[in-house]
Design brief:
heterodimer, A: mainly alpha, 16 helices, 68% helix, B: alpha/beta, Rossmann fold, 3 domains, five-stranded mixed sheet, 20 strands, 24% strand
Chain lengths: 301, 388
């Protein structure tokens, strides 16, 4: 908490924290399938290849940018968040995404995040782009090769440990929880957003269960996509509010919108669509703090 | 969760070995306030400790040396502004007015005399309130602030070690004369030498407590300290240097004409604490231009980022330390909206709104927001926008 952090420290910290998710994805979407002779040995490392590709592309885009701006690539890279955006994007797309589509989407979100005047959360936007393009080309699915061929039924433990269906690196609630507990010790992590977002989603889901008396609605809550987005996407450092009230209200409103979309239309995508919408209004969430009366602590007796 | 930030571990500490006396300044420059009335004409030979000017609130300006009063000259101060100063050429005779014997027991002073001296010394308490007014309102407790925010400023530590008898005696006398229950001497819990020395002596002063404070930034500021110690209006905080000045005036019946100046920093091989005449110009101690070619010189506190820009500097009461560092060549990057500046502000202000007058006025200018900023933006140096 006391240490001064640089942009480089922040990005490296995040990247190290994401590595367990990548390795788990290699295990779940690669090793287990390889054991069943469903994929080749190279396919086992596909999540890792996607992760490394995103870092290389981020570097190349920064290299082009620094050449245009005529500044040192080392200085540009030291303050670049593109590797983080790229790495996160590799985890929120399905593992069986077509490589060309992946690279195309990756380039778009890296360019968008480099353009400072575009305020949208690049990862949420990337996810929406993925939904649209994969619907168009008819490949919208989060199932891996094994899941495509069998009917799966998971219990709570399977879901918590990460055997459920989901994006490449966003299935293990267990690892995500550990990442969250590490992140809340960092002064740059906007934990208020993560907590308010998840708690709101939890309360809304409980309310829905009570109203509809339908226990299957609990699936919305224990969806690892919701947890992943709440921990890593909605509180994205550079694309979220920074004031206390702003952070809390951003988390709450994103969750409310996300819950409505998730429960009515797209269970896995609602929170990303909500994040993309609310990230357009970050400035207004920060202004909220000035509008609301402040709680003051009177120190002098 | 504890919001206080300890930054001292992030800096290389350079502790001076001892105090170096440097009391032979050729010229003395005494900053003149706009309301001051000069009592002598240029050319007059003045004795040491002569009242050379008096401001509208009867605060005297004292000559720290004997010599010829040359007149008024503009010289640079700690804010990098040229201000009017009275110039005295030292004749090195140290002539003073009639010598008065030292007072043995400070507790024998009357309340009225103490109040008069406090007023003359212009001692402040609790964020620029006048001590002579506040102490008469029956305070409950006095806190002696011996804390310092700059990691490499050892003035208070050396003052505590070299003048412990005078300091303890003065605090004890204040307790007796103003019927205070007790007083706390606030020391950082990392000052191990001071703590061990004072532990031995405090047994003789039962109404003085040694209060160890966490080494957090910027704890020496009243706004932060009062929040940390949950002080109320009846508690008074007095700076250690003011207690020393008061004790010196009571004991010796003379004004303090010297001050301590730490010159240190990560690039300094031989850090020094100088004892100087108040009003000495810095160029008499350091070759400023040569240093400024290779390094940056920061006045008082590195984090406040008050850089020495002028060719010289008058060492007055506002200059306590000079921190020399390598030149900072890293350029600020665009804000990444991380909010670290906001979460690290010790008084909970939003540093991104420092262009608003109301927030800028409350800002302590401690520089913690700028220091913590991952993008190296000098946030606390933001000026107020002028609104019609």
């Amino acid at each position: 908490m006391n240490k001064k952090v640089t942009n480089k420290d922040i990005v490296l910290n995040y990247l190290f924290l994401l590595i367990p998710l990548v390795l788990f994805s290699c295990y779940k979407n690669g090793y287990l399938l390889y054991n069943k002779n469903l994929v080749t040995l190279l396919y086992v490392f596909k999540p890792l290849i996607m992760f490394v590709t995103s870092l290389i592309l981020a570097f190349l885009i920064e290299l082009i940018y620094s050449n245009i701006q005529k500044v040192s690539i080392l200085k540009t890279m030291a303050n670049s968040y593109l590797p983080l955006y790229g790495a996160l994007f590799s985890l929120i797309v399905p593992v069986n995404i077509h490589p060309l589509l992946y690279i195309f989407l990756l380039i778009i979100i890296l360019i968008i995040s480099k353009l400072e005047f575009i305020k949208i959360n690049p990862l949420a936007f990337g996810r929406i782009l993925f939904i649209i393009t994969s619907f168009i080309i008819g490949t919208y699915t989060y199932l891996n090769v094994y899941e495509e061929n069998v009917l799966v039924s998971y219990d709570l433990w399977d879901i918590l440990l990460g055997k459920s269906i989901g994006a490449s690196g966003a299935t293990s609630i267990f690892i995500l929880t550990i990442i969250f507990f590490i992140l809340i010790t960092k002064n740059y992590y906007k934990k208020e957003i993560a907590l308010s977002s998840f708690i709101t989603f939890f309360l809304l889901d409980i309310t829905l269960i009570i109203i509809t008396k339908d226990l299957t609605k609990i699936n919305l809550l224990i969806d690892s996509e919701i947890v992943f987005a709440s921990i890593l996407i909605i509180p994205l450092l550079t694309k979220s509010p920074y004031t206390k009230i702003g952070k809390l209200s951003y988390g709450i409103i994103t969750s409310i919108i996300g819950f409505i979309i998730s429960s009515l239309f797209l269970p896995k995508e609602g929170i990303y669509i909500a994040c993309a919408i609310s990230s357009l209004f970050i400035k207004y969430f920060d202004i909220l703090e000035d509008k609301l009366p402040k709680r003051r602590l009177k120190l002098c007796k | 969760m504890n919001k206080y930030i300890n930054i001292s571990k992030n800096f290389l500490k350079k502790r001076p070995q001892d105090i170096t006396l440097k009391l032979d300044s050729e010229f003395i420059y005494l900053p003149l306030s706009t309301t001051s009335k000069i009592l002598f004409n240029p050319g007059k030979v003045l004795k040491k400790e002569t009242i050379i000017a008096m401001n509208s609130t009867n605060i005297p300006l004292i000559t720290p040396v004997s010599g010829v009063f040359l007149g008024i000259k503009e010289m640079p101060n700690y804010e990098n502004k040229n201000i009017k100063t009275l110039v005295i050429k030292n004749n090195y005779k140290e002539e003073t007015n009639k010598k008065i014997a030292s007072k043995r027991n400070l507790s024998k002073y009357s309340k009225e005399v103490i109040l008069l001296i406090i007023q003359r010394l212009n001692i402040k308490t609790n964020k620029d309130k006048n001590l002579f007014q506040e102490i008469d309102r029956e305070p409950k407790k006095i806190y002696i602030n011996a804390l310092c925010d700059e990691v490499n400023n050892y003035n208070n530590e050396f003052r505590l070690l070299h003048n412990k008898d005078l300091i303890l005696e003065t605090i004890s006398a204040l307790n007796t004369i103003f019927n205070l229950e007790e007083s706390d001497l606030l020391i950082k819990d990392t000052s191990s030498e001071v703590i061990s020395v004072y532990k031995e002596f405090l047994g003789s002063f039962p109404n003085i407590n040694l209060h160890l404070i966490k080494d957090v930034y910027p704890i020496s500021r009243y706004e932060v300290l009062s929040k940390y110690l949950l002080l109320n209006n009846k508690d008074l905080v007095i700076n250690l240097e003011d207690i020393y000045k008061l004790g010196y005036a009571l004991k010796r019946q003379r004004f303090v004409t010297e001050k301590l100046l730490t010159i240190s920093g990560p690039v300094v091989l031989d850090p020094h604490i100088y004892e100087l005449k108040i009003g000495t110009k810095l160029s008499e101690i350091l070759n400023i231009n040569e240093i400024k070619e290779k390094y940056d010189i920061w006045i008082n506190n590195y984090l406040e980022q008050n850089k020495l820009l002028m060719d010289d500097l008058i060492i007055d009461d506002n200059v306590n330390a000079l921190i020399i560092t390598d030149k900072n060549l890293s350029l600020p990057k665009p804000c990444n909206n991380c909010g670290i500046c906001y979460t690290s502000c010790p008084i909970g202000l939003n540093p991104k709104k420092l262009d608003q007058k109301e927030i800028n006025e409350k800002c302590l200018k401690c520089g913690l927001c700028s220091y913590m900023c991952p993008c190296n933006i000098l946030i606390h140096k933001k000026e107020v926008e002028i609104h019609e």
